[in-house]
């Protein structure tokens, strides 16, 4: 689920089903929209980030 998203900076956070939180940049939104609403359930891949921390990638909204 998307737990935070700053439209101006293009940065956000998602929380996985196990409670782990990952950061993401708007380019990681799979449909190319560059924006996503807080509270949207998503699937995502976890990839190594540039700062040595894992990040979310290929965010795809899911239906509940």
Topology:
Layout: E1 2-6, E2 11-15, E3 21-25, E4 42-48, E5 54-61
Antiparallel strand pairs: 1-2, 2-3, 4-5
- The structure class reads mainly beta
Distance between the termini: 11 Å
Q: Multimeric state of these chains? A: single chain
Helix fraction by DSSP (H/I, runs of at least 4)? under 10%
Q: How are strands sequenced across the largest beta sheet?
A: 1-2-3
Task: Put the structure in a nutshell.
This protein is an all-beta fold and 64 residues long. Helices cover 0% and strands 47% of the residues.
Walk me through this protein's architecture.
The protein is mainly beta and 64 residues long. 0% of the residues lie in helices and 47% in strands. It has no helices and five strands. The protein has strands at 2-6, 11-15, 21-25, 42-48, 54-61. The chain has a three-stranded antiparallel β-sheet, with no helix packed on it. The protein has a two-stranded antiparallel sheet with strand order 4-5. β1 and β2 (11-15) form a beta hairpin. The chain is globular, with a radius of gyration of 11 Å. The model has no long low-confidence stretch (mean pLDDT 95).
């Amino acid at each position: 689920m998307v737990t935070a998203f700053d439209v101006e900076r293009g940065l956000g956070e998602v929380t996985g089903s196990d409670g782990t939180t990952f950061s993401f940049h708007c380019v990681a939104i799979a449909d190319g929209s560059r924006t996503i609403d807080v509270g949207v359930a998503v699937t995502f891949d976890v990839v190594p980030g540039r700062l040595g921390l894992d990040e979310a990638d290929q965010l795809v909204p899911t239906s509940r």
